[in-house]
Amino acid sequence: MNKIIEANSMQFKFDNSYQRELDGFYALCQAEAAPAPRWVKFNHALAEELGLRTEEIDTQEGAEIFSGNILPPGAVPIAQVYAGHQFGNFSPRLGDGRALLLGEVIDRMGKRRDIQLKGSGRTPFSRSGDGKAAIGPMLREYLMGEAMYHLGIPTTRALAVVATGEFVYRDTPLPGAVLTRVAASHIRIGTFEYFASRNDIESVRRLADYTIRRHYPELIGKSYIEFVLGVIARQAELVARWMCVGFIHGVMNTDNMLLSGETIDYGPCAFLEHYDPATVFSSIDHKGRYAFGNQPTIAQWNLARFAETLLPLLDKDSDRAVQLATEAINSFSEQYENAWLTMMRRKLGLERIETDDAKLAQEFMDALQDGHADFILAWRNLADAAEFNPVPLRSVFRGDMAKIDEWLPRWQSRLALEKRAAAEIAADMRRVNPYVIPRNHLVEQVLEAATINNDFAPLNQMLEVLRDPYTEREAARLYAEPASSEQAACHRTFCGT
Predict the structure, then answer these.
(1) What is the mean pLDDT of residues 342-370?
(2) Which member of 96, 114, 255, 285 is catalytic?
(3) Which is nearest to 14 in space by CA: 64, 65, 73?
């Protein structure tokens, strides 16, 4: 049984609307005891956002809380139920198999945030799993969430990682850990699918109304098709942001798409090295379903599954409901293209709107693919080319440069229409094209140092660099270097479950 601590400790102020308003959408559950909790990582900046007293956290009592051994007052731990399409196949009952939602807090900005433990033990939805987590994947989630946040991409974030003092068993025994995840909510497309698959229309309606109140209050009182369109708009924006920094989610199942529009689940994720739309890093994505270039299409497919759950709410006439849903889903492509093109114009240094801008952006990426160029540094060094120095850009090409040589004069002619100084254009480009991202080979190196050698200095150094990904500086130089061909060729990612 979890111990309850004094009410003033850390000042968690829980207001658990999901648990209070959606009975039947979860199972009450307790975390399993961790034998010897100890601190690994704590996110002081996020704690400040949440209004926690950080001076009270870096203690043994804090480690006990974030391992699940001690339950803060007001917390009501629940495992949420959901279904999901996993690699296109429907699983009617998934749910939190190794996670517990402790509750919700209102942060300093008045926003409601979920506080969830991940890796805290078995739940009624664990199936054959042990409900535990290894320290490596939890540190990966911490690192990737922070990197995405500082890149300006909506994301869940980690508040803490605590080692449990026990081993979990995967291919080999690994040190166990619990991660505390913070999200706008953990409502997934799969949450809607769970009740829709049971033809429980009233529960779908309750969930839709709750989600609208929590994430789309501007839609209260409007038709449910407006809700569908609102979700589509957020997902189109999110995936466009992924595509502009070369992020590959790796496991875009419907249970990994949040209605809040945040990125969740940093298991088999990675970043592009050279640009290739067919790139896959996930060891479980054998057919390339979630390849980099497929992500917009998969997002639309997942959103279609979401719209299907709401058909009975869209119109009493089933044919009319299907028509409304189809029109909404078909609008995704235009919304995604608009979001992508808006971002691409900024990356290319363009403020004016010209007809062929999308073609210009795509032709640049075609040149990157032909030239086997590093995706991040090519975009970054394009700013130098805006100041009439193409040498840094050309230096990141490892293959055919014919296309980039043909493209550069066309882009320079397009820049001339901007009527702005070259230095101003270049400065704007450097503000949107990152200098550093979490390079895959470096992520593996810092995680290996932490998990095998108990050396967290490389992880801390990388996190510090990733806090300012758009500024070119000496401390970040090592982290900006691409992987070697050998490192890139052998990189694979895993779920960590």
Answers:
(1) 97
(2) 255
(3) 73
